[in-house]
Amino acid sequence: LLGDVCDPDDDNDGYSDDEDTFPLDPTESIDTDFDGIGNNADTDDDNDGYLDNEDAFPLDKNEWIDTDSDGIGNNADTDDDGDGVPDISDAFPLDSTEWFDSDQDGVGDNSDAFPNDPNEQVDSDQDGVGDNSDAFPNNPAYFLDSDQDGMPDAWEIQFGLDPNDPSDANSDFDNDGVSALEEFIAGTIPGGTLDVDGNQSYDALTDGLLILRYMFGLTDNSLITGAVASDAIYKDADSLQNRLAVIAAMSDIDGSGSVDALTDGLLILRYLFGLEGDTLIIGVLSADATRTEPSEIEDFLSRLTP
């Protein structure tokens, strides 16, 4: 047996004593950070403040992260994310998918739906209006709500409501017990259905005739004589004219951009008489109609007769 004086590896750990920081401890041989704790027991070998199991360079106190996994630590690497843009010119040096931020809003141009507008970054419904400005960010059909009543301006105008009056959110023009706001949320019509007289039914010889007369410009007694149902809720000319004004505003049945008695009015009357298919539309479509198929007309009218 050799005594320690003669033994070149006193702890028999495979490291010669002159290379072994712990020549008498077979479990340790190196102490990278010279803190008196061997690397096997030391949880931070290079003493850089990052634990070895989180340190990409556990034996280099000058490095601990390698974002692009290229073997060069971020402190020495001039392109940390490996996107080809030097860190000094990269607005996002640790994100390989981004490097420029035109509007300096913190969102890279590649991810920013509005790269030149610092107030907008996302357009959830892809309607061209950013979510921060869009009152209905998940509905591509609407974006503006001037009176902030929860109903879009375009929808209110379509159904005869006032986009600058928030109180009409609680209105119930069709007297069905459901407010206008609730109708919008449910996707139903808030008022001005083809049930003009409010008796909860659709009749050609009452509702249809009233609509047609109104479109021809008749008012007062000329409007209502012989055309009001016996169980009508709205019977006098004034109340019926108010309801008809709303109905007329949304009665561009053939989508021509205008409402006309001899096209839209006759389409409504025929529909309420039960006509379908070509019989419904023949001879009564505007020259500039955009809804020209019977199925399109019937679908539109069905929404006015819920």
What is the compact description of this entry?
By secondary structure, the protein is mainly α. Helices cover about 25% and strands about 0% of the residues. The chain contains eight helices and no strands.
Q: With helices defined by DSSP (H or I, 4 residues minimum), what is the helix count?
A: 8
Average pLDDT figure:
91
Query: What is the rounded Rg?
Result: 39 Å
- Write down the oligomeric state: single chain
Provide the structure class.
Answer: mainly alpha
Order of helices and strands: HHHHHHHH
Biggest sheet record: none
Helical content stands at: 10-25%
Hey, roughly how much beta strand do the residues contain?
under 5%
Whole-Å distance between the termini? 105 Å
Quick one: how many beta strands? 0
Shape: rod-shaped
Unreliable residue runs: none
Description:
- It is a single chain.
- The N and C termini lie far apart (105 Å).
- With 306 residues, this protein is mostly helical.
- The longest helix has 13 residues, at 237-249.
- It has eight helices and no strands.
- Helix content is 23%, strand content 0%.
- The chain has helices at residues 153-158, 180-186, 204-215, 220-224, 237-249, 261-272, 277-281, 294-303.
- The chain is rod-shaped, with a radius of gyration of 39 Å.
- α3 (204-215) packs across α5 (237-249) and α3 (204-215) runs antiparallel to α6 (261-272).
List keywords for this structure.
306 residues, mainly alpha, 8 helices, rod-shaped
